Amino acid sequence: MDEKDRISEIFRDSTVFITGGTGFLGKVLIEKLLRCTELKRIYLLVRSKKGKTPQERLHDIFNNMVSVRNFELPNAI
């Protein structure tokens, strides 16, 4: 079994919680999870930074992405 299949199988239908997801490595991790797995849900802990609210930061991140399959940005709680 190759590495991609093993990772995909481990995370299939899982829910993950990620802190630091707006940093460089966090963005790489999220991209990898979205591209290579069939996650049920991803929760991100996003804080205010440099005068931007968490919602504004997420909006900026997802507007700068090339493409994400089957992704909907929910309203922040």
From TrEMBL:
GO MF annotation list: alcohol-forming long-chain fatty acyl-CoA reductase activity; alcohol-forming very long-chain fatty acyl-CoA reductase activity
Entry EC no(s): 1.2.1.84
Coiled coil (UniProt feature): none
One GO CC term, this protein: peroxisome
Domain Thioester reductase (TE): 18-64
Enzyme class of the recorded protein, top EC level: oxidoreductase
Originating organism: Asbolus verrucosus (Desert ironclad beetle)
Domain of life: Eukaryota
Transmembrane annotation, as ranges: none
Biological processes annotated in GO: long-chain fatty-acyl-CoA metabolic process
Protein function: Catalyzes the reduction of fatty acyl-CoA to fatty alcohols.
Homology family: Belongs to the fatty acyl-CoA reductase family.
Keywords from the UniProt entry: Lipid biosynthesis, Lipid metabolism, NADP, Oxidoreductase
Catalytic activity: a long-chain fatty acyl-CoA + 2 NADPH + 2 H(+) = a long-chain primary fatty alcohol + 2 NADP(+) + CoA
Pfam family name, one: NAD_binding_4
Name used for this protein in its record: Fatty acyl-CoA reductase
